[in-house]
Amino acid sequence: MVQNYILLFIGAALVNNIVLVKILGLCPFMGVSKKLEASVAMAMATAFVLTIGSGTSYFISEYLLGTDLFYLRTVSFIVVIAGVVQFTEMWMEKNSPVLYQVLGIYLPLITTNCAVLGIPLLNVQHKHNLFESLIFGFGGAVGFSIVLILFASMRERLEAADVPAVFQGAAIAMVTGGLMSLAFMGFAGLVR
Amino acid sequence: MSSLLNIVKQSFGLGAVAVSGGVHPPEHKHESTTQAVGQLPLPQQLTLPLRQHVGNLPKVLVKLGDYVLKGQLLAEAEGNISAAIHAPSSGTITSIEDALIPHPSGLPDRCITIALDGKDEWIAHAPIDWRKLETEQDKSKLLEGLRSSGIVGLGGAAFPTQVKLRTNAKSSVDTLVLNAAECEPYITCDDMLMRERADQILKGLEIAQHLLGAKQCLIGIEDNKPEAAEAMRHACANSPLSKLVPLKVVVVPTQYPSGDARQLIRLLTGIEVPADKRSTDVGLQCFNVATVLALHRYFDFGEPSISRIVTITGNVQKPANYEVLFGTSVADLVQAGGGALADTDGYIMGGPMMGFNLPSVSVPITKASNCVIASAPNLFPSAPPAMPCIRCARCADVCPVSLQPQELYWFAKSSNLEKARDYNLFDCIECGCCTYACPSNIPLVQYYRFAKSEIIAQDRAKEAANLARERNEFRLMRIDREKQERAEKHAQKAAGAKAEAAKTEATSATEAPEDEAMAAKKAAIAAAIERAKAQKAAAAPQNVVDAIPSVQAEIAEIDARREAAKQSVTDAIATNDAQEEK
Amino acid sequence: MLTAVYVMLFLALLLGVLLGYSALKFKVDGDPLVARIDAILPQTQCGQCGFPGCKPYATAIAAGEADINQCPPGGDAGARALADLMGVEYKPLNAEHGLPKPKSVALIYENTCIGCTLCIQACPVDAILGAAKHMHTIIASECTGCELCLAPCPVDCITMEPIAESPDNWKWRYPVFDIKSVGQVGNLQAGTRH
After folding, report:
1. Euclidean distance between the first and final Cα of chain C, in Å?
2. Can you tell me the distance from the alpha carbon of B256 to that of B249, in angstroms, rounded to the nearest whole number?
3. Could you count the other beta carbons within 10 Å of the beta carbon of residue B323?
4. Domain range holding C143?
5. B458 and B518 part of one domain
6. What are the tens digits of pLDDT across the range B342-392?
7. Is C76 on the interface with B (CB under 8 A)?
8. Considering the entire predicted model, what is its pTM?
9. Is C12 in Cβ contact with A79 (below 8 Å)?
């Protein structure tokens, strides 16, 4: 029983990594990863929103919408996610204005993060119960965080490296992201 | 791999503690140890830079044309961390102005130049009793004296020694380490010093141990100096210090940079001083052999620091060691070494790893100069062009401070100074091992030096900006405050005048209209008195004390008249009041 | 159909209450952004940006009324730091507001000074020592080089002296490598094809 949850977690985090395998949530991945502290902050914020979002989305889709109001799923998920992101923003502005400033526009952009909407929708699709939804959501968030922090570290090194002029900036970042994606394909088959 | 093996061995208590990293460049020490330490003939003049030590510049006490004796105080230490400058020989002060100094920038700095008269006459000096150390005052008196002795670390760091001999309740010294390693190639001044004056070094060590209250003394020597080690062992056996505390000569394997204070401490005691702490915080203090010898000369003879042994080697006829007075020109030293050979293309002050190119040969020898190397294309070929970094990490293998030179290189290269600071750039001792090991011939230390001086300049600018911000805010606040005070005063005066007018109005409210004129006149007089009082308060104090009697009499007359006038006005008011009351 | 409306209304109300409560609980006073911009500015208080000091300029940047490239004493590095902080594209310095000059300190030529105190009133950091009918002198360590004292002086006795490089403030240079030509590239004659 527990083994299933562990496998679900690893699956969400590594095997079906939302950024590198499912190619969702690229906006903060490319936008915030220039600095390591910003990436850590973004990873934690997204993790929080994802987990809470997954949980509340389960409640909404299960009890509030049921099977008749299925067409309201996307709208209501977005509304909830927007609310949670707003809450996170306010909390961050109060408690760490430095990080709030560092993240800038990318904090409210978590609302439009396709990964943050994608995970609850996947939960519904896979018919997960509450606990599974939370684990799936948290696993996805952990996977997102790992990749974001790794990528930020690499981009900091790329800043200092002798990159040819045509590749500097976004181009070399995309190439690196692609190579990371190839690397993460190695996890395929890890969890049957 | 070898470092990993070392770590494993050490964790099992096997094997010697070795220098972590480090390199073994060719030593080139035999060239300059073939003869005894020589004495240079007295030069024509000596040029003493004021900046010969770490800390504040000393304050010059002499002026142009002064005749000074050997050992006379020329500039006194100023501030907490500073050292004095003494005349190394007798003569006349011919200039106190900017002259070329041995500095990598090649920029001139303030120097005192003495034209020597050849008499070499000592100033009166006497030994100081350093054994009397019962009270705190004794200790502070000795350290005060040391502050004006001009003694600084003669190993190259030039840190004022009196600061290192202070102990307080917080930092007590258990182990006193004597640094006789002299790990850099070509330099042999400490080697010859130990071979010839080991017993004087031990006498100095006694003094240092007594002042610090150290419980044991360790002398660290590299194994490429067997004669010096033997001489030190012999001196230790004969020294009264060996009966007081455990005193040991420890021979360490030759590896550059074992002479770095923290490296040597680790080699001798196994204690690794944390990067953010000083060695005194873990109960250790480290001195160079030449420094403790200077202590002995000062306390037991009263002689301030006026000379040191300097190695002249490299592309010269006769490499050797000489006892050189501070301020002697490097040209004189090169001459003593038999003159530079024809293909000499420059001079290096210091060793080949940490030294710098001299801007010219006519710079003076200072307290920090331990060696002069004449360089030639065959001895020091020009560096091949730098190639891109291949991330081989050989630099990380050899770094004695266990830093990541390749990361520091990338950050310094792209001017990412914050990251460089985070990767402990300021723990770098600029030993040059990384540059020596780099297969791409990248001048790594130059990048670190650039990054360090940029960061220091930025920090200074930031501090200055903070101060300027404070001053600006205070000024704005002051202007506001003055405006407010003026407004208040105006309001008060207006209120006061109104109150006065109201008062007089009240008293004369029942009077006839003729008396209104009287009341107005009274108010005017009252206001005039107020004004006069205010003016008197604001006026400068009377300056009559120095005036001649007739003027004084006149002033006295005027004063009397003023008093009479005042009295009459008061009388007028009084009579007015009396009239009204009637 | 109506249930859908009720469901959405309910969600909206719930979130509204939650967010309203958080808005009150996590209320932020003041604008730390101005302080952070001010920390980057060099505090020369020269007014070249068009504002009477560094704090007003910082306030203007925070309010979006001023651009980030108006500060010559901050130089290129300052403009980049401001661009980083504000999350906008870096812009080179606007020449309208002046060009970066080497750091200087004011110097009063004492023979000409008449002790009028006009420069003392002009100095934004109170770096001039003096009083009415007394000699004025610049406290060099506090002078920011803003040049605001030059204009008010009626006898034109103040000059700006650039700070000279001394062994005290000398900086190691960035390692630069000479690119030397190794030799001629082939022996082709112009116009000849082989």
Report:
1. 86
2. 19
3. 15
4. 102-164
5. no
6. 999 999 999 999 999 999 999 999 999 999 999 999 999 888 888 989 999
7. no
8. 0.80
9. yes
